[in-house]
Amino acid sequence: MQFAPHTDDDVREMLAVLGMSSVAELFDQIPEDVRLGRDLDIPLGLSEMELVADLRGLAARNRHTDDLVCFAGGGAYDHYVPAVVWALAGRSELYTSYTPYQPEVSQGILQALFEYQSLICDLTSLDVSNASLYDGATALVEAVNMARHATRRSRVLVSETVDPRYWATLRTYGRGTGYQPEPLLADVAGGTSSNPSRPEIGDDVAAVVIQHPNVFGNLEPARELFDAAHAAGARTIQVFDPLSLGVLAPPGDLGADIAVAEGQPLGNHLAYGGPYLGIIAARMQDVRRMPGRIAGETVDVDGTTGYVLTLQAREQHIRREKATSNICTNQTLMAVAATIYLGWLGPKGLEELGRQSHAKAAYAAERLSSLSGVDLAFPDTPFFKEFAVRTEREPDAVQRGLIDAGYLAGPVCEVGPQGRDGRVLLVAVTERRTREEIDAFVKAFEEACS
Amino acid sequence: MSAGAVGAPVRRTGPPVPSTLRSLSRPGRRASMLPPLDVPEAEITPDHRRSGSVDLPEVAERDLVSHFTRLSQRNYGVDTGFYPLGSCSMKYNPKVAEQVAALPGMQRLHPWQPDSTIQGALELLWRLERALCEITGMHRATLQPPAGASGELTGLLIMRAYHTKQGDPRTKILIPDAAHGTNPASVTLSGYTPVKVPADGRGLVDLEALHRLTDDQVAGLMLTNPNTLGLFEVDIADITKTVHDAGGLVYYDGANLNAVLGKARPGDMGFDIVHINTHKTFATPHGGGGPGAGPVAVVERLEPFLPAPLVKQADESDGGRGFEWDRDRPDAIGRVHGWNGNFGILVRAYAYVFGHGRDGLKEVGERAVLNANYLAALVRDAYPLAYPDGRPMHEFVSTAKPLRRHGVRAMDVAKRLIDLGFHPSTVYFPLVVEEAMMVEPTETESKETLDAFAEAMSQVAREAEQDPDLLHEAPVTTPVRRLDEARAARDLRLTWSMGGGAAGSKAGAGVVAEPSADAAGEQPTA
Question: CA-CA distance, A369 to A245, in Å (whole number)?
C-alpha cells in the first residue's frame, strides 16, 4: 500500500524547485551517526488484497460475540447496536476530521458534542458534561482530581465494591498526583457498608467514590453514603451504568456531585475494550474544574447560532502546567455514536431496555440458583442486569466449560480484600438475550459445573 | 488551475439555525423498538427506582438520520479535502483499515474473553508491538495508552518509577519552550516540575542553556525531533548524552515521527522512551477529536516499569507458540487505561504499518518531507519562515507578520483560506513564533493540491494588501461565520437545559459565568 500520489515527474519537478537532485538531500541535515543505515526489519508492504487476507486470518483465530452467546459483563456489555449509529457516525466528514479548532468548518462535530453533553446531563440529572474522556476508569481519575482541587483535601475513599480495574488505574495516576485510594469497607451483602457512624469519612477526605450498580452488579445504599460524605464536606463521586438510568434513580438525585461511566453500552462495539468513551458529569460548582473539551453555544457575527469549544482557559493548550488535565485527544467519535444511540433509544426505549435487562437478569439468576452446586453470591441484595454466582467447581473451569458449549460469561471476580471471601463468576444479561438463549445457557452452566 | 478547485468548498447547507434533537422532539415519537419481553417482569425495589421518565428527546429514525447527515455536511474532514494542520499529520485515512477493524473477529471481542479465545488479537498486538519497537529503535512497548497525552503521562510515570527504584526520585523535567501544551500538563500530573529550555537562533535546543539547566534533580527531558518548529535537532546525540550524563532519561514525543520514518530512529538518537500517535503517523482516523492511540516504547532497562499487562509469546514448553497476557509484572507502573487500550484503533494502525511495510514507510517519510519543503518554497516569500536558515522536515512554521501592516492577522488568513476551499494550517502555535502558521501537508497530497494551496496563500496575501476587509469578514461561505468565543465562555450554554439549542431563545437564559481568560481567535491550535 502507498497513498503518496507522486509520479517520478512530480518528484523531479518538486526537487528542481528546491534546487536538489535527489530526495536523499532532504535528509542531509540528519547527522550520519543517528541515521538508520539500513532498511527497517519489517516485511515488505502488501497489496490491499494481501492485507485483508492477513487480517481475516488473524480474525478467524478469535472467538467473538456473534459466535459465543454473550453473558459476560464486568464493565462492557453486549447491548444491541442499531444500524443507524455507525451508518451516521461512520460518515467520513465526521470521522476523518481533527479536533474542531476551526469552528466554522466543524459545526457538525461541535453541535453533536453539544447535544451529547445535553443528553448526558438529561440522563444523570447533573448540570455539565464534557465532550468525553478515554474510558470509565480514566474518567474516575479525572473526577478524583476535580474533587481534590475543589476541596483542597487529599484523601480519597473508594468502596471495595468499585471495579478493581478502576482501583488499579487510580493507584497508577495517584502516584503522580500524590495520593493513594483507601478502601471503604464492603459488607457481606456485597455492597458498601452503610454503617451510619462512618468514622472513616473524616474532614480530610476529598472524595468518596462508590460504584452503583457495583462491580458485582449489586445496588448500593448510595443516598446514605453520599449523605455521610457530604456531612464530612467531601465531594461524592458515583460510577454509574448509563443504560441503568431508565429504571434507576440518576446520580444527581442520589446526591452524587460528580458522576462517571464507561460509555461503551451507548452504541459502541465491544472491540476488545476500546475505543470506548469516558463519561463525566458534574454540578455547576465544578464547571471550571472539568477536564478536557467542552462545546458551548454562541452566535456568529450575523447573530446566527453556532457552537465552539469553550472554557478553554482550563485546558493544556492555554494553561499548560496549570491545566485541569493533560487530555487533548479524547473519544469524540464515540460520544457522537452515543448521541445517535440515545436519539434512537429515546426515553421510552431507555426505560424499556432497563426493564428488559433487569427482568432477564432476574430470570437467569433465579434459574441458575436452582442448579445444584450453584448459588447466588449475594442472594439478599438487589441487582440490576448483572449478578455474581458462587460455584462449587472452580469458576475459571466453569467459564471454560461454558466457552466450549458456546457461551461467554465472566469475568471471574475476587470477593473481599485479596480475595479473602473467595471468587465468583459474574453473569450479565442484556436486552439482547432471549428466554431461549437463557434457558440453554442455564443448561450449559449445569453441565459446566458437573 | 484556480485556487480552491482542489479543496471542496464548504457551502451553507440547510437552514441557518439548525435543528437540534431537542427541537425535533415530539411527545410519543420514537425510533427504537425492542422485541416483546419473553420472561416474567421483575420489579426494581422502590428505593432505587427512578421517579418519572428521563427527559430525552423523542424523534423518529428518519429525522434522526437527516439530522446527523446534515451535521456531517457542516463538517470538514480529510476526505473533504486538504487539511494541512501542523503537528497533526492529517493524512489520508485508508478505507481498508476501517473494513478490517469491522471484521466480527476484531470488532466483537469482549474485553474479558480468556486469552485462549483471542489468539488472533494477541498475535496482532504482538506483531504491532514488535514493528513499533523496530520503527522507533526501542526494546518493548505498551499499547495501553489511548492517546498521545496519555502516552506522555505513562512515559513520565515510567521515569518516576525508574528513578524511585534507583532511590533518587528527582524533581524536574526539562521541556523546550516551544513544546505542545500537553507536555507541561503531563509533567505536573506526574508530580514533577517543568523547566523550560529556550531555543537558540537556529530554532534548536540552546545547548548552553541545556548544560546550565541539567543537574542532578533533572529526571528527564521531553523533546520532539524534528522539533515543534519542524526542524531536525542536529545536536541530538549531544543533547541526549548531556541528560544521560546527569542521570536523567530522555523522552521522545512522537508527534513528529512521520518525518523520520525509516530514516532515523529515536532509539539511535539516544532516547529512552517514545510515544507514538497512531492517529498522526499511522493514519488512524481522529474522529473529530478522538479516538487516538498512544503506544509507549522503551529501552531495555525500562521494560520492567511498562504498564501491565504486556503480550507475551507463551513458553514453547507450555505446549505451542500461543500468546497470552503477562500480568505478573511487579515493577509495572500499573494500569493507565481501564482496558487494554483502544484496540480497534490499534487494528487500523496494524493495517497501516504492515500494508506499507518497510518500503512504504520509508516512502511516507520521504514524500512527507518533500511535500513540506516544496510547499514552504512556494509560500515563503509571502509568509517568511520563522527560522529561514533551517531546512524544514515534514512541516514548516511561517509567519503572517508581514501582513500586520495591513491590519491582517494569521487568523484572518486562516479564515479566508476556508472561503477558498481549504482547511487552514495550525495558527498561533508554537507560541514562541509571532503570527505563527504551522503547515503540515503530509505525504498523501499531490503536487496539484500543494500548488493550488500555495496559490490560495499568495492570493490571500495580495488581498491583505488590496482589500483587507475581505479577510476580516471571512469566512462567508460556511454555515456560520466567525463565532463569538468570548460570549460562549461568559454566557455559558453547555446544554439545551442551559438555554442552548435552537429551541432556546436568542437571549437571556444562559448561565453567566465569571470573566475568563478566553479571548476569541487567540488560541493556539495544535
Answer: 27
